[in-house]
Amino acid sequence: MKFKNLKQIYLFLLLFFIYPFKIWGIQALSLEDVILIGIKNNPQINIVYKIKEQYFYQKNLVRAEFFPYIYLQYTYERIDLGRNEPALNFHSFGPYFNWNIFSGFSTWHNYKSALLLIASQDENIKSTILDIALNIIQAYVEYFKQKSLYEAALADLEDAKVLLKLAKKRYEVGLSPYADVLDAEARVKEAEFNVTNYKYTSEVAKVNVLTLINYDISRSEEFEFLPVEEYKIEIKTLDEYIKLGLIKRPEIKAKEKEILAQEERIKSVKGEFYPYIDLFGCYYKVDSKFFPDKDEEFIAGVRITFPIFLGFSRFAKLGMEKVILDQKKFEKINTELNIKQEIFNSYKAWQTAKENYETALAWLRSMEEDYRIIQKKYESGLASIVDVTTLLARLSQARAKVAVSRYSWIYSQYRLQKSLGMIPEIEK
Questions:
Q1: Disulfide-capable partner of 254 in 96, 120, 232, 397 (CB 3.0 to 4.6 Å)?
Q2: H or E element: which one contains 280?
């Protein structure tokens, strides 16, 4: 490709760095991109939003009780006086309204309860988002783990091919038996098998990520994921992590708001023990025969209703609401215990994964050095093919261990953060 001037070069570089993958028909997605797309496309999010919407309409139903109710009413009456008197027919038609202006604050507490339940659903939505994000992260990290194993298998294959060339060269000059060549060829075949296997598993892991974000898996070749990097988390003690988790976890906040909402429900039931005050009024057109009406009637007044005896239903209702409140409090305690256990497990898993990764790195460096030395010894005839293949197998294990432990450590970091109620890609 030739460029005639600097302007064309600048334009090409600008497009290349802004849209590096789209130029070649491949869309690159970072972990943050995948999480946000997954949250947007996941049906679980739509489910929890619909649940919240139900509470929203429930709140509107309660709010409607603050306003007057207006009806359009038609009434027909027939009065038979007996004693051969003619029957009387009355028709009335007109508006009627009723407005409850006092209900012992029962309606007000019901309304506050509905608002708190909506707020608790907001916390449930956050909890669902965290769960979805962690599932996506696990699949995303698994893809790079399998891809890293595939790359390690390719490195093993290159080492095996080098060993095969060396064995053939030594056999040709009579320094090694043909058995060395056969051992080296077997090692190549084994490495080729591992390459094919990990190539397949990495493709499956990639499709799993696309499935979680609701993308077309038949177009998996059009997408590529950007590597996930290690990030440094602030080192704290287990007690500090537990305290932070109990503050930030949305599940606890949701339970707290559910408890407050239930307390308002109890206050609402207590309000039913007080008298109700209603304003009412109606305006009628009256005709003793039929329409059109001949007379008019207007009625307005105040109605005070004292609930004296309702079969102990209010006491039963109050008792039930108190039991539900106790249940909510126990649910909160149980949620706190589960979260503490989750934080503890995540913290220990993170510590273990970190130590395993550091150990695997040290083992890999040692195996690389040992293999380099044994390879030189084999070239000079101071070691057998068995020594070389044994160390090559250990080197392969070390590479695989580094690949697995590295991404296990990265995932454990996200798992620990999620147990505290936050994921960096969402917090941004």
A1: 120
A2: strand 276-287
d(CA 297, CA 94): 9
3-state helix, strand, coil in the chain (%, to 5): 70, 15, 20
Q: Exposed/middle/buried for 304, CB within 10 Å: 0-12, 13-18, 19+?
A: exposed
| Spatial distance between the Cα atoms of 406 and 104, rounded to a whole number of angstroms | 63
Report the distance separating Cα 346 and Cα 247, nearest Å.
17
Of the pLDDT bands very low, low, confident and very high (cuts 50, 70, 90), residue 272 is confident
**Amino acid, res. 34:** V
CATH of the domain at 242: 1.20.1600.10
Report the number of distinct structural domains present in the chain: 1
User: Residue 371 in contact with residue 391, Cβ under 8 Å?
Assistant: yes
Distance (Å, whole) CA 350 – CA 358: 12
**By residue range, what is the domain housing residue 177?**
24-66+103-272+307-427
Residue 7 within a domain: no
Between 70 and 89, the higher pLDDT residue: 70
In a domain, 15, yes or no: no
Q: Kindly provide the b/e burial profile for residues 205-236, where b requires at least 16 CB atoms within 10 angstroms of the residue's own CB.
A: bbbbbbebbebeeeeeeebebeebeeeeeeee
CB 420 within 8 A of CB 241: yes
What 8-state DSSP symbol labels residue 283? Answer: E
Q: Summarize the confidence of residues 395-405 as an average pLDDT.
A: 93
Distance, in Å, from the CA atom of 354 to the CA atom of 233, rounded to the nearest integer, reads: 12
pLDDT in tens, 326-379: 999 999 999 999 999 999 999 999 999 999 999 999 999 999 999 899 888 888
β-strands 276-287, 27-29: how paired?
unpaired
Does residue 288 fall inside a structural domain? Answer: no
User: Is-contact 258 249, C-beta < 8 A?
Assistant: no
CA distances from 223 to 29, 30, 138, 215, 291 (A): 7, 11, 18, 10, 76
User: For the residues 391-414, what does the mean pLDDT come to?
Assistant: 92
